[in-house]
Amino acid sequence: CTSSIHLPLPISFSHPDRTGQHEVVHHLLESGANPNVQHKNDLQSPLIRVCSQKKKPSYPTTQLSRDIEDIRHNLTKALLGSDADLNISDKDKNTALMAALENGMHFYELL
Question: Cα-Cα-Cα-Cα dihedral of 1, 91, 73, 64, to 10°?
Fold first, then answer.
């Protein structure tokens, strides 16, 4: 029997040290969660959601903003390591790479 676990995304990046959501995602992936499940409304995959988190360029660089960027980087690596499909597109035909470039991810080369 093959089952698919829907990952708990979108992820809140407002308080990464308090939420522990990145640990939850890592645990679900290690437990066999499907990294390619698309949200029923916008068809975004977990990878597209992580890459779609908007960077706030007007805010000064702080430890919190660096932590958030590290979490995004680690989640991207974890999803890719779990065979997340880079070719999945959302309802607007955007892929994870397109979202990463649009939202200022400095590690888009992972994609």
Answer: -120
Give 41: exposed, middle or buried? Use CB within 10 Å, 0-12, 13-18, 19+.
Answer: exposed
Are the CB atoms for 5 and 32 separated by under 8 Å? yes
- What residues contact 85, with CB distance under 8 A and at least 6 apart? 35, 36, 45, 47
C-beta neighbour count of 15 within 10 angstroms:
12
Query: Considering the entire predicted model, what is its pTM?
Result: 0.75
pLDDT truncated to tens, each residue of the chain (111 aa)?
445 555 444 444 444 444 576 777 788 888 888 889 888 889 989 899 888 877 655 556 777 777 777 888 888 888 999 999 999 999 999 999 999 888 877 666 676
DSSP string, 49-90: HHHHSPP-TTSPP-HHHHHHHHHHHHHHHHHHHTT--TT---
Nearest residue to 37 (alpha-carbon basis) of 97, 105, 90, 74: 90
